[in-house]
Amino acid sequence: MSGLYSRSWYGRGRERPPTVIVGYGRAGRDLHHRALRSLFGPDFEVLVVDPALTEAPPGAVLLPSLREAAGFGPMAEMVFHVTTPPCHHLGAVEELVALGARRIVLEKPVAPSSAETRRLCALALEATILPVSVWPNSKVTERLRQIIADGTIGMPVALYMEQSKPRFGRTGSSDSHRSAFEVELPHQVLLALHLAGDQARILSSPVWAMPLPDRSVPAMGGAVLRLEHGNGVVSTLLSDLTSPTRRRHLRVTGTRGEILADFPVSTDDPYGQLRVAGRPGRAVIEDSPLTSFLAAAYAHLLDGGPLPAADLRLHHRTIELLEQAQDQAVTAELEESVSW
Hints:
The chain has 340 residues and is of the alpha/beta class. The chain has two domains: 3-131, 3-Layer(aba) Sandwich (Rossmann fold); 138-337, Dihydrodipicolinate Reductase, domain 2, CATH 3.30.360. The protein is built from nine helices and 16 strands. It has helices at 26-40, 89-99, 114-123, 139-149, 168-173, 185-196, 289-303, 312-328, 334-337, and strands spanning 19-22, 46-49, 60-63, 79-82, 103-106, 128-131, 156-166, 200-204, 206-211, 216-229, 234-240, 242-254, 258-262, 271-276, 283-286, 330-331. Strands 7, 8, 9, 10, 11, 12, 13, 14, 15 and 16 form a ten-stranded mixed β-sheet that branches. α6 (185-196) crosses α8. The radius of gyration is 21 Å and the shape is globular.
């Protein structure tokens, strides 16, 4: 390992304090560290705290505990990425705040329940906690908001979003989720609240089972959540986990027109598309939403820039609505729930 993270690293003219990734599974390794390398260069190194690891991964220094990070500089000035499983988020943030950490990036979902999210909101009085918000910080969303603000489609009256993918294998081999409301819909609800307002009530929340060759898994085939926002906009959010293909599509209908947007479906081809219905042509937009979010997060934490879109309060409201949706869910068939 180079001398970048020697114990005397901090304070030698470097522009950035150390970054610490807490939990180096798929989210920490393949999402956060990868995005940080896109932002700061392919050799960007991090400190890692993960008891599951026995040796340091490439580009990282492995620490035995969070407390050890204090040997690399002031805890209050480091940036901590919490990418553990959601059930461990609250405990990790509590420990970090107690140790003096004040700059925290928190992977989504921020917590498994609204009760734990309320405790995170209380901790946010002592530290800056930035929840990962992908679609609100997407370049496609940024362009869409500009078109809405320009009045091109008039006043928005309806929002439809589909985020579907085939998830047979993971559902058959894991019981980590109780229903389809916990898989893709958290992303969709957060974006709907970001675009149409967080004052919303549930109109309906049907859910259907996932058929597997040897059995059926209740509530894991997909779901539709319909919301009415305080301004009258109705959001219809569909997630079909039995879909043969991936789709991340958004349609915003206004009083004078409609915007059709497609988000990137993977990091392998980071491009989205956007067009106004009835007009020729489409905009192809290079879009890496996690990288965009982290760029905004670091600009805020280190340089005092504006907050990234969608704060902890909006994540809390998202979890509240999803809990209500699961409590009110009615089992249905896919064909009964979706208007093709």
